[in-house]
Amino acid sequence: MIEAMGVRAVRGGGEVLKGVSLKAEKGEALAIIGPTGSGKTTLLRILNLLDPPGGGRVLFDGVDVSAGDRARLLARRRMAMVFQKPSLFNATVEKNVSYGLRVRGVSASAIDGLVGAALREVGLSGWEKRGAFGLSGGEAQRVALARALVTDPELLLLDEATANLDPRTTEAIEALIRRVRDDGMTVVMATHDLGQARELADRVAVLMEGEVVVLGTAEEIFDSPGSEEVGRFVGGRRRQGRSLMIPDRTSHP
Amino acid sequence: MDEIGAGFVRAVELIVSLDPAVVDITVRSLIIALTSTAIATTIAVPIGGLIHFHNFWGKRAVINVIQTLYSLPTVTVGLLVFLLLSRSGPFGGLGLLFTPAGMVVGQTVLIVPIMTGLTIAALSGVADQVRDSAVSLGASKYQAIFTIMGEARAAMMAAVLLGFGRALSEVGVAMMIGGNIRGYTRVLTTAIALETSRGDIEFSMALGIILVSISLIVNLLVNRVQGRWWA
Predict the structure, then answer these.
(1) CB distance from B227 to chain A under 8 Å?
(2) Which CATH number characterizes residue A24's domain?
């Protein structure tokens, strides 16, 4: 479905991604875990074709979509991404959720039904006319998820989509991710939450300092990490708490 | 002091009674300023968008020049446009000097820089995440640009209103290009200058009150579109 081949990225003079290669098969849920600054967000942005790679290629369904505006647009319209911070447009919830449909030229008559269904899906039925800027963080993230799912993407990219959300909203979003995954949608998610990665992903990639140090099934990674480095990372974090959350290195010295 | 008080009362009477001369000058001022603003908008918004959405060598310098032109004295613009439109100038054949159309040209030249600069500032104020969201949701390059412009609509509307305010209240271009011809190119600012020098304080004050009132309304509208009434 989506494949990074030797993807490199340079930000602020430093190499953020050092030749990352990984692949998510159709219908698979792939989690990318790693400490803050390991390059997860940069990788997801490149997979979403928001930023061009500094080297290497991105293949979507076996086709190189790293270059060429038209190829990138067509590929991007088959995927959707939810960011850590939901950046909604200054408009109603309805206008936000229908955006992806409108830019694809979907008819107005079809849009109403699709938006209503998407909002039902995220538990915000009847919220169409509310202003997006008045929503709480959790509500905004649900709208962002509805906005991504309304186009029925083949690939869903999630960049820390449940970070900073209350447990109830996190659970609701996780349930939705589980459902779309079970329905056959390909999901690639970057997360700090190791419990979430273990629960939702078929395979897990551990990204450290811009490199995929290990890629395997969730059981392999968490139960027998293979290397001391990964074991220390996963095991160390696991001992810290039940939720398997990775503390943000930058927030607390 | 009494003279000012009496002048103020007489000025209000002129406005309330819809004095034909006052109405004529006010309507002409509004038509010329609105036309200038409309034309300047069709020039400034695309230019501002082009500059904002494209990276090119010297972009910062271009923006600096535009910002410098904000404070260009109106008489300097008046002189420049006068030279261009005068008989011996490159556009003398158009016969625009001392006509309302010529005043529109002059005011357009005057307000395009400020409207362009404020358009760039408005677009720069839209968070990068808005562009990311639009593109990520499948917008083409141009659809994303329209989305960003839509997000900047309040600040861009403020730019248009400020341009209108500057066109309406300037005197240099109106005097030098229009010539202050009674019943033809005389507008609020040139009439105030003339009537004050003639000693008709009441008439000047009436026009001044109208000018300040329109400026106040424009200012309130700017604040309104930016989401605050009395800021």
Answers:
(1) no
(2) 3.40.50.300
Nearest CB to B137 within list A85, A90, A103:
A103
Cβ contact (<8 Å) for A99 and B134? yes
Q: Give A192→chain B minimum CA distance, Å.
A: 21
Domain boundaries of chain B, sorted by first residue: 2-225
Look up the ipTM and state it.
0.85
Q: How many CB pairs under 8 A join A and B?
A: 51
* Residue A209 covered by a domain: yes
Q: Nearest C-alpha of chain A: how many angstroms from B138? A: 5
Q: B116 CB contacts (<8 Å, ≥6 apart)?
A: B43, B44, B47, B48, B51, B66
pLDDT per position as a tens digit, B204-217: 888 999 999 988 98
What pLDDT, in 10s, does the model give residues A126-138? 899 999 888 988 8
Give the minimum alpha-carbon distance from A80 to chain B in angstroms, rounded to a whole number: 6
Q: Do A104 and B138 touch (CB under 8 A)?
A: yes
Q: Cα separation of A225 and A214, whole Å? A: 8
Structural tokens at position B92: 């003398």
Q: Is the pLDDT of residue A239 over 50?
A: no
Domain membership of residue A114 (yes or no) is no
The verdict on residue A1 lying in a domain is yes
**Tokens describing residue A98:** 């229908």
Q: Are B77 and B85 in contact (CB under 8 A)?
A: no
Q: Is residue A92 part of a domain?
A: no
Report whether pLDDT(A253) > 50: no
Domain B2-225 top-level CATH class:
mainly alpha
- For residue A246, the 8-state DSSP code is P
* B141 neighbourhood in chain A, CB within 8 Å: 69
Burial (CB count <10 Å: 0-12, 13-18, 19+), residue B2: exposed
pTM tops 0.80, yes or no: yes
Instruction: Catalogue the E-assigned strands of chain A.
Output: 2-11, 14-24, 29-33, 55-60, 63-64, 79-82, 155-159, 186-191, 203-208, 211-217
Band of the pLDDT at A224, cuts 50, 70, 90? confident
Tally of domains in chain A: 1
d(CA B69, CA B60): 14
Ramachandran assignment for A136, one of left (phi > 0), alpha (psi -120 to 50 degrees), beta (any other): beta
Domain that holds residue A25: 1-75+203-253
